[in-house]
Amino acid sequence: MHKIGIFGIDFYLFMYTYDSLFEFTCSIFQAMGCPEKDATLATDVLLSADLRGVDSHGVARLSGYVRLWEAGRINANPTIRIVHESPSTAVVDGDGGLGLVVAPFAMQVAIQKAAQAGTGWVSVKHSNHYGIAGYHAMQALAQDMIGMSMTNASPLVAPTYSLKRLLGTNPIAVAIPADKEPAFVADFATTTAANGKLEILQRKGQDAPEGWIQNKSGDVSTNPHELSQGGALLPLGSDRDHGSHKGYCLGSIVDIFSAVLSGANYGPWVPPFVSFLQPPADPVGKGIGHFFGAMRVDAFRPADEFKAHMDNWIRTFRAAPAVEGEKVQIPGDPERIMEANRRVNGIPLLEPVVKDLQATAEKLGVAFSPVEC
Amino acid sequence: MHKIGIFGIDFYLFMYTYDSLFEFTCSIFQAMGCPEKDATLATDVLLSADLRGVDSHGVARLSGYVRLWEAGRINANPTIRIVHESPSTAVVDGDGGLGLVVAPFAMQVAIQKAAQAGTGWVSVKHSNHYGIAGYHAMQALAQDMIGMSMTNASPLVAPTYSLKRLLGTNPIAVAIPADKEPAFVADFATTTAANGKLEILQRKGQDAPEGWIQNKSGDVSTNPHELSQGGALLPLGSDRDHGSHKGYCLGSIVDIFSAVLSGANYGPWVPPFVSFLQPPADPVGKGIGHFFGAMRVDAFRPADEFKAHMDNWIRTFRAAPAVEGEKVQIPGDPERIMEANRRVNGIPLLEPVVKDLQATAEKLGVAFSPVEC
After folding, report:
1. Which chain B residues are within 8 Å of A237, Cβ to Cβ?
2. Can you give the pLDDT of all 373 residues of chain B as single tens digits?
3. Do B310 and A256 touch (CB under 8 A)?
4. CA pseudo-torsion sign B228, B64, B139, A112
5. How many distinct structural domains can be found in chain B?
6. Is the dihedral of CA B268, B269, B274, B277 positive or negative?
7. Cβ partners under 8 Å of residue A67, min gap 6
8. What number of CA atoms fall less than 13 Å from residue B93's CA on the CB side?
9. Do A123 and A57 lie in a common domain?
10. Residue A277, exposed/middle/buried by CB under 10 A (0-12, 13-18, 19+)?
């Protein structure tokens, strides 16, 4: 345990070994009734966020999944199946399962379709939150495929000029293999700033930069608590003059590919992740939706050629002259460096997260077993 | 001819009937040596920009294509062919042809692949500027398919923290069919502002908003002439705090899908559109690259179901409460309204564009025949 000051506030930070945190998380999923194989998979997906430094989407959310399961909104033992398909496409029904389990199933379908048809595209309905988008896209890399992953989410974002929240932060991930260089892995919300960044500002008691949020009247706001007062996150671009209509397009495309193609809920009907908010009473589909893609590189050109040019692309961009004190990064660089570090030095969890995990463990009769390092 | 004041400057504006402008443009392409069928197709693509209000990409560029042809950098009579394929993919070699002709060929390949395999994905090398991205994506709509289109372009954009221009404005278009509502048609550059907007400010003698451009040192600039002085356009998001790394990801994905998959030039090697700038002497591929996709809606769910939900999606978003004096628009709304207007009332061209077209006509021995309305 370490005492650290963040933004002038003292936090207690615990460092746990990845393996022990993995074992613990897996026990929690099994206590929910997940078969061992599903529990292991869900843990792998969830903790990939902690490894890659996306702390908001990792084990800190474990108690949220448990509460959704307690509320009967997650099926711990789903029958996930293909309900519609063509040579290069499928729709998967997640049967209300953990997105952490449904998404890997669907991504594997996309990869298998790609192996046969060159590309595979899978839209998913009746799912739940699937962790970080990048994990799923990256599954394609080992097969020399480009992987894509996107998901809709509960409405926190107002389209350009809208006073109403109609879209989620709807992330897009694209993973592209290279040869000697590490893969290109883009993974980003289609908003200017993710909700997790607002939470940090709330703790700091600091204002948000202009361009992240609007208040309930649609005016610029710097109040990080605005979302609880009828405000909204803004699409990537922030305002019309800076291209927010483009961020709105991106979020919409994610929503339509994930949910209108599959038969999930879209727009304002997407059910919330938090168990204390009820899903809309008039659903237009089932659960939340995802969309996955896999493209075999050699369905376009020999994989060796492609990967050699990707190395050249990556080296060219990384070597570009940069502003003082910064460098040009390749998408995926920061997360990869973070993962290498955390596999060795452990996963840091703040005290409130640890207490939340301890309470969840107690509730489910599971020992709190992570080992500090 | 009308005299109009724009930004305090008098311009002479000529209104031409669409049909007469079509006939004239087609004559120019034929005078370049394009077969009649290709000339007609190229004209249809080029003038779709004028119809839809994207004046920067329409007939105003005709003389630019002619100059590239004169410089031997456009092949007026190309043998466009598939050089690699799988059931759902292809790579098309444009043989140095007009992008206005190569792109429709490739999009048809994508549509034919989708008819068979559910989806079709085509990457294109050895092409040139292809007009507006949206035209090509929209070709899928009549077949109840979702259409996608993207292209790389000569480097005007600096990745986050880069001092060097490494990406083009690399647009993405996605067209999604609905039933009774008009289709959803997103078509946007992956930069905060398109170059055409800077040109307008140059004419006005006005500053650009912060967040559109940087100077050669990577600092914020509001000088609309910055690009001619070593500056760069900024990726969608403008700066790191407002998500420019996401715009950089998007532009990169377009570049890689269009050019690294196909074998075209990418990043700083993309040849310029203007004939007075030479292409790089050390090309890494052939010409510029595009990427097209077509997804049969009924490869996911029955088309009637999908389109009924798209109507609901569109109506829900369009009906959202908006800030005073504005409304929530569906992507494609402004362009569709513009097209309906211009088909009736004609295409407006500014005097410098008309003079440029007259000079081009004279050079090629073609009568300048557009009819004013």
Report:
1. 192, 236-237, 243
2. 777 766 566 677 899 999 999 999 999 999 999 999 999 999 999 999 999 999 889 999 999 999 999 999 999 999 999 999 999 999 999 999 999 999 999 999 999 999 999 999 999 999 999 999 999 999 999 999 999 999 999 999 999 999 999 999 999 999 999 999 999 999 999 999 988 788 878 877 899 999 999 999 999 999 999 999 999 999 999 999 999 999 999 999 999 999 999 999 999 999 999 999 999 999 999 999 999 999 999 999 999 999 999 999 999 999 999 999 999 999 999 999 999 999 999 999 999 999 999 999 999 999 999 999 9
3. yes
4. negative
5. 3
6. positive
7. A274, A275
8. 11
9. no
10. exposed
> Which residues in chain B have Cβ-Cβ distances shorter than 8 Å to A320?
159, 162-164, 166
Q: H/E element holding A200?
A: helix A195-204
User: Does B252 contact A331 at a Cβ distance shorter than 8 Å?
Assistant: yes
Residue B207 is part of a domain; what is its CATH number?
3.30.60.50
Torsions phi, psi for B191 (to 5 deg): -110, 165
Residues B23 and B88 in one domain: no
Closest Cα in chain A, distance from residue B223 (Å):
16
Q: Residue A100's domain spans which residues?
A: 78-192+236-332
Residue whose tokens read 């600091």: A206
Of A241, A252, A322, the CB nearest to B163: A322
- B275 forms beta bridges with none
- Contact of A139 with chain B, judged by CB distance below 8 Å, is answered with no
A295 touches chain B (CB under 8 A): yes
Q: Inform me whether the C-beta atom of residue B318 falls under 8 Å from chain A C-beta atoms.
A: no
Q: How far is B364 from chain A (nearest CA, A)?
A: 39
The distance of A299 to chain B (nearest Cα, Å) reads: 6
Specify whether A320 is located in the same domain as A361. no
**Overall pTM surpassing 0.80 (yes/no):** yes
Domain membership flag for residue A29? yes
Residue A155 lies in a domain: yes
Q: Is A326 on the interface with B (CB under 8 A)?
A: yes
Of B209, B256, B306, the CB nearest to A261: B306
| B153 and B6 share one domain | no
